[in-house]
Structure formats: C-alpha cells, structure tokens
Amino acid sequence: MSFATRPLLASALAVSLVAAVGCAKDPAKDVPAATVAEPAPAAAPAPEAAPVAPAAAEPAVAPAVAAPAAAPAGDAKTLTGTIRATGSKVTGNHVLEFKTWKGSITLTNGDASALEFEVETASVIGDADKPTPGNEKLEGHLKSPDFFDVAQFPKASFKSTSISAGGEGGATHTIAGKLTLRGVEKDVTFPVTVAKSATEVTGKAKFSINRKDFGIVYAGMADNLIRDDVVLEIDVKAAL
C-alpha cells in the first residue's frame, strides 16, 4: 500500500465507523440561538465648545418649578448558581461547568435592569454530569490554546446593555449585552426567564452560540468532528 492511499483508507474507515455507530444528537438544535454581532463602534466624542466670556453675575432667583427627582438607584444582588456549557461532536458530547465565577443582578423598582458575570476560565470542569478520573485529560485540553487558552485569557465576562420584557420560546425577558470570551468581544442577545418571590429572584437561560465567533476553531479528530454550536446554560439566583 502506498503512503498516499493510507489517509484515504483511514478516512473511509472513519466514515464507516461513524455510520455504524450513528451520529449523536446535536443539543444545540433544541435551544434558541443567540444573536451574535460585532460590537457597535463607540460614539465619537463631542467637539469642545468654544470658550465663552463670563457674563455679569445676576442675582439668584428661586426656580419656579422644583427640579425632577433623580431616577431610583438600582439594587445590585450577588448571584449564586451554575454556569455550564455543552459541546458536542459526532459520537457524543461533553458538559462543562465553570466552578469559579462572580455575578450580580440589579433590580430597579423591583424589575431586573442589569446583569453581570465574570468567569475564571481555568475553573472549567469536564463532563460535570459524569465525573471520572479520566476527566483530567479533557480538562487539560480545554485549558489549552485549542480551546479557552486560560494562560492568555484567564477571564470571560458578560455585561448587559439592556433587558426588555418578552422573549423567544416563552421567556419572560430578552437580554442584550457584551460577551467577552478568549479575548474576543461580541454583542449578544438571548432569551432568559426571570422570576421573583418574596425571598429571591431567579434567572434561567439556555441558548447556543457559535464557538468560532470567539476564536475557538479546533476541529477535532477527522472521525469525530466537533460541532460549531455550543449550548450555554445559566441557572442562577439571588436572595432579596
């Protein structure tokens, strides 16, 4: 057998194996896809006004109408809960969990008005739903430049820019904001369900993003290609 024909034979055997085993279900097909876009350019600073000579002082006059009251300050609450991601490939999937993160939800007049997260990427746990000793190899690969490159990009973050009522799939709200992952910042929009009781506020979101939008382009093995869409799942709460 010539050297040139070996890769073709290996590829044919891989295709035959996948066909025999069957393709694993793509979890991203069952959830809404987030809208992802390049960040809007920052507004240009306003030109400086020309200096104006000071006018002669005039006697102070009491205003006829009282100044409007300042908008109520938001009440930031610390979040706890879980942040997970599910990546899939031809033969299965991996559920990842980030164990170290901090976040807050801000309530204004009792309604959610802002959401923030900061995640330590090195805290990723591989196969969080079925931990085994072999997970260390998976976690090491996830932390490498093929994926999160935690040495160069130790933090991932999200900061909302708006929260509006109503959302896809029966969600109570739609959140827009800036997601920074692996040093790449994108504007993202996704649905979330927020609920509030007398003692706590909860937020749940499950949506997909394309990992390649954030520079994670590792393809995987030829016989077990990694899918582009990754499911993010956020399940958090804050005490009131």
In short:
This protein is mainly beta.
Let me know the largest β-sheet: 12 strands, antiparallel
Low-confidence stretches: 1-21
**Envelope shape:** globular
Calculate the mean pLDDT score and round it: 86
**Proportion in β-strands:** 35-45%
Radius of gyration: 25 Å
CATH class: Mainly Beta
Question: How many domains would you count in the coordinates?
Answer: 1
Helix content: 10-25%
Number of strand segments: 14
What is the name of the CATH topology? Lipocalin
* N to C succession of SSEs: HEEEEEEEHEEEEEEE
Oligomer: single chain
Note the main attributes of this structure:
240 residues; mainly beta; Lipocalin; 12-stranded antiparallel beta sheet; two-stranded antiparallel ribbon; 14 strands; 43% strand; disordered N terminus
How would you describe this protein?
The chain has helices at residues 5-21, 135-142, and strands at 35-37, 75-78, 80-89, 92-98, 101-108, 111-120, 124-125, 155-165, 173-181, 184-196, 200-210, 220-221, 224-225, 229-239. It is mainly beta. The protein has a single domain (24-38, 73-239), classed as Beta Barrel (Lipocalin), CATH 2.40.128.110. The strands form 2 sheets. Strands 1, 2, 3, 4, 5, 6, 7, 8, 9, 10, 11 and 14 form a 12-stranded antiparallel beta sheet that branches. It has a two-stranded antiparallel ribbon with strand order 12-13. A hairpin with a 7-residue loop joins β8 (155-165) and β9 (173-181). The radius of gyration is 25 Å and the shape is globular.
List the helices and strands and how they pair.
Elements (H helix, E strand, L loop, with lengths): L4 H17 L13 E3 L37 E4 L1 E10 L2 E7 L2 E8 L2 E10 L3 E2 L9 H8 L12 E11 L7 E9 L2 E13 L3 E11 L9 E2 L2 E2 L3 E11 L1
Antiparallel strand pairs: 1-10, 2-5, 3-4, 3-14, 4-7, 5-6, 6-8, 8-9, 9-10, 10-11, 11-14, 12-13
